[in-house]
Task: structure prediction
Amino acid sequence: MRYLPIFLDLQTGPVLLVGAGDLVRAKLRLLLSAGARVRWFAVDGDYDAGLDDEAAVRVERAGDPLSADLNGVIAILCAGAGELGETVARRARAAGIPVNVMDDIAHSSFIFPAVVDRGDVVVAVGTGGASPVVARRVREKIESVLPARIGDLAAFIGRWRKPMQKLLPQMSSRRTFWERIVDGPIGALVLAGCTEEAERALRDIRDPQSYAAERGFVTLVGAGPGDPDLLTVKALRALQDADVIFYDDLVSPEVLDRARRDATRVSVGRRIGKPGIGQDATNALLIAAAREGKRAVRLKGGDPFIFGRGGEEVAALREAGVAYSVIPGVSAGIGAAAQFEVPLTFRKQATRITFLTAHKTHDAAAVDWSLLTDAGMTIVVYMGITAAPAIRAGLLAAGRSAKTPVGVFARVTRPDAGAVVGTLGELPDLVEKIDGGPAILIIGDVVSHGLPWPRVVRELEDIRRDTRVLEPVA
Result:
């Protein structure tokens, strides 16, 4: 990110406001709602603010913003100031004062976000000044899901923070305690407007340390094929609650960005040429974290129970007596089918699906291909790039037609996704055209029902070259 979101205490000094018209009046109302003392220079001489209480506004009727005393000024805003805004901005920068010129990023040192105001809870949404409309739409989404009394809950906790710091000196215990308050019946009472009942319930907690004590827990989470928007709500909640996250190499950075900032992150994945720490060591890490009382997340690309070794990890956790849960994810095969509109089943044409993995040539050699020759069966192969020649050989030898449609779908649901289609006879050559994995192979007549492939391939190539049908304004 280019802009660091911060919250400025506008009650620590005056704000200088320059401008005219509805734009400057909107900024004036926003500043006053935060308790600011405003020195307003109306460039058109019209100081009718249209406010019920103008006590906080110091009207600079005869002054000039270019010669005004800037001593103690904590920020300068220009809205509807015309060309004067650029000159004021230069003076502000020279004095080391944060400045915002509306709709002029080049002369602004900070930008205004779209704001969700819930009292003590304030959410700021920004787009780096690129699209205020998008920021407002995001704000509207947040407004629709954020409880109306969430600010009351924050204020409630704020009143009890210092007493609990004495009773719970360890930060980890306090965090767990407040999480249980927020997510439990006491938090529900505050959100329902029953603050007095919530106060009594909190006072009735005799032993905060025991209340905060939490047994370790492991959650196996399916991260999906890469697009963070495909995470389930339950998966997001687990990532936000986690103390430690053990993740695969196939988990995208964008998905990891959805995790709690202070969670410990440990890579336990393996890729071709990188064996990783091994499954037994991963199991041991999960068990150790749980026995330390931590909430551990085992984050896996795709779904934990589809070639994700989730079954092995569950067995180890059961044997160790560790509490756990499993949150499913969108498997890469399903992600590929959805992104490129390949129906894995099709009435009267494809009525069965087989998922298999062929990480290496010897994996493919171990498959009984004679069971996969039915033209009505769609075959979805995971990790099949290296074994592509053996997959083709096995299917052809078993009797599958060389003209069977095949799609190779790489890095599915990610911005750099790629697709190449052809026939089973061409499979090794198709794989060579894909610029790196991970990749999914889909074999069967259903591939022919996907998107118009020549157009799709061209569009993906255009995206990678950063070309656009409409050129953006410089």
